[in-house]
Amino acid sequence: MITMENVCKSYKVAKRNAGFGEACKALFRREYEVIHALNKLSFTIQDGEMVGYIGPNGAGKSSTIKILSGILTPDSGTCVIDGRIPWKNRTEHVRHIGVVFGQRSQLWWDIPVIDSFELLKEIYSISTPQYNNKLEELTQLLQLQEILKTPTRQLSLGQRMRCEVAASLLHEPKLLFLDEPTIGLDAVSKLAVRDFIRKINREHKTTVILTTHDMQDIEVIAERVILIGRGQILLDGTLDALRHAALNTEDGTAEEQINLDRVVADLYRKLNIL
Amino acid sequence: MRKYYLFFRLRFAAGVQYRMAAITALTTQLVWGLMECLAYKAIAEASGNSLPMNYSAIVSYIWLKEALLALFNTWAADNDIFGMILNGDISYEMCRPLSVYSMWFSRTVGGRVSEALLRCIPVLLCAFLMPYPYKPGLPVSMEAFALFLLTAVFALGVTVAFCMLVYILCFFTLSPQGWRMVLTGAIDFLSGNIIPLPFFPQGYRKIAELLPFAYMQNVPFRIYCGDLAGADIPPAILKQIFWFLVLTLAGMLAWKQAEKRIIVQGG
After folding, report:
1. What is the pTM of this model?
2. A2-106+168-271 has which fold?
3. Chain A window 111-130: which residues touch B at a Cβ cutoff of 8 Å?
4. pLDDT tens-digit profile of B157-172?
5. Residue B190 lies in a domain
6. Which of A23, A205, B161, B231 maximizes the CB count within 10 A of its CB?
7. What is the ipTM of this complex?
8. Handedness of CA B102, B108, B113, B114 (dihedral sign)
9. Hey, where are the domains in chain A?
């Protein structure tokens, strides 16, 4: 179970106007602006839930994921995941979680994917039979047979992302954080990744938290949607509740409401969080 | 332990992939080594052979330095690690149930040993084929050779522990370039990579020997060629261990601070 209570995180950003004169001035005196990425964020997620975490760019989605996975230390507030505080018991905590950052890579660039997997096997102390089983399962589900022996740098984005997802599940984590896992994928890879996430959740009761800008991801995967804007939770409920919230203000036609992207865009506008 | 060994092995595998780089480096090192041998020859003749090290010891020192450049240089730190810190891929490193410090330490050692193994054999082979005065000597004795190997391990430890500090400095300043330029330039000099420490004027040499950098490549190379011998060896080894412990501890403490400051920008 994940409980987050009143978590705050702010960043200091140096700002200046355009121009050479301004640049010189900034050498001596910098003006900082404090950005509140997360502002008293609280939520609870039960075991086995699939949660879609959405919000406009800069809403604080990634910051939340990074706090949950122990990378960032929040300024204040508490966060307890299965009895552990992520940033305090980092090494113990990360043993039980899998993370995919859609924009980064955890595979070694120059060597075949399978070598990276073997390293993960050692890092997480996975026993050989368990590793072999899992690898076979993942290879089949994500169709990795052909690409496991290829060096990472020669994989296409879609192939790489499938490997990234597999890599984060080798140690059978109870929790899976996906930060934009379908970014830049073609239709086939997207479908494969989505199906796979659902399957993992169904079969292993893995809790999944997913951030994305692709509303179809949310539609297919998430049973529950958390909408965040300006560091605060604005809506927490099912997809239908989300549709409803948008419907209540905009008098768009029913047809328009089928288009989820539009629903969400309307909501963002209505909540004034863009 | 096995985990760290695997890091080492993987980095090794990645290092071995760059064959072309190894060949070009070989040429550079041979030319550079020979040039240095000639320069010291000129100095030796001009000064009437009253150098602080004898000429054959200098030649051995130079060739060892060239052959093991990848192992002991302080300026070529693992660029992947700098990359990870600057572009945020460190996110993944922090999602592993291991200490980041140990992970990076074994990775750096792996990178250095793989490159050095690949490069030292051809450089040494070519060096031993050089005509007489420019040819490196064999170790002065079996014990000297054993001590050379032992102190080389400690020297690598001190060097890598120092590199770790340089990595961690990146967390405190946005661009590591400036720091690296200043630090590595000075340290290249103080570790005896440009001229061997015995060539330093007495006072400066005393200062250099108070610093950790004198306990990197300086010790094993001078033991090999017999310039550092007898009763001078044990204190040198003790100081190597001392500096290794101090630098590692400092690195770990600095990492603890850095960990709290991490900000991963954008995505």
Report:
1. 0.82
2. Rossmann fold (3.40.50)
3. 111, 115-116, 118-119, 122-125
4. 999 999 898 888 888 8
5. yes
6. B161
7. 0.77
8. positive
9. 2-106+168-271
